[in-house]
Fold this sequence. Notes:
four-stranded mixed sheet; alpha/beta; 27% helix; Rossmann fold
Amino acid sequence: MLYAVDHHRGSEEHQPGESHHDPALIDGSGAVDTFHEFRRNITEAGVDSAVIPIVAASAQLARFWRGGLAMVFIDGGHSLEAALTDYRAWAGHLRPGGILAIHDVFADPAEGGLAPFTIWQLASQSGLFEPLGTEGSLRGLMRITA
Length: 146
């Protein structure tokens, strides 16, 4: 099973007036709501039976999460605060041998934001992870110690 944790209110860049804002994602109250789009994508991919959506703030859920995880995929807000919050909230839940995958990792902020690169560096230098590889802007690390 894959648990997909997201508040579905969009990242900073999805808000009205920002670079990736999509007016079609505004709900009846005037707020960004990406949940309908998420469900449509999961259905189109044919993975409804394998994905359990959890609509919650990442750090809030992480405080109550029990049990180790085999993989954590961080693809959230691109502010340093948002990226650090996700990393600090979930990295400790990974079992040894578990994969930490971070999306939108660019060393040059002009290419897509520095915050994911910063948390990738933090994890790489922590002594808890070893780098696995890169595919485009996705970088993976393996948890090597509890």
